[in-house]
Amino acid sequence: MKLILISLLLLTAVAGYSADIEKIIGKNDFIAVNDDGTNIPLRYRKVLDAFGIMTTGCTVTHLGNGIVLTAGHCFWAPPTLVEHTGCADTEIIWGVRGNKQGYLKSQCQEVIAAQYTSGLDFAIIKVSPAPDVFIAPDLKRRAIMGDSLTLFSHPDDLPLHWSQNCGVERNQNPLFPADSLQHQCDTNPGSSGATLLSLVNLKVVGIHDGGYLDIDGSGMNYGTFVMNSPIYGILKDLGFN
Prior knowledge:
By secondary structure, the protein is mainly beta. Helices cover 7% and strands 39% of the residues.
């Protein structure tokens, strides 16, 4: 499994830290999604056009009404929450998979809110034009250990890849904030900002932010929960339920 290493402050404290960007833990489970998505389970095909790739290389997800979710470090967000900042130089291409070059290009209109700390790494942005397809956030229930997840992303700026399924893992590493979402879905540089979807309802429960590798070869990915974070209140204020 490949993991992107994001926070140098965190990683230098982890035994076995290396400056290499990519780490492989276990086998690579990535599946490159073909043009029409027929090589992945049927239930996922209806949401494929909700995933986009930013000009900065991060993965984004359309939540509806032109509201898009990704990682805060993709916008160089500060450790304190910032709201209503510009992003006119950022574009998103939707539906890049297989040999398809995408069906829609959107312009970032505004960074509604963004923050990047060791425990919170998210950006909520407004884009136009907005894709027709969206994936709703889960604002009713926080994912818990053992819940099954899935993830789609653009690793290494490639067309859309599916990481197959993984689970919410127990948070046992003292270097991780107690409220971080730990998972082992495959990721790589470019997967930052990809949303973690619940297999129960295919709603967004978190954002993938980064990962680490221990000296014994084990490792973990981590992210930000939608629930019990500022994301929840901001999305509620934007009309999501």
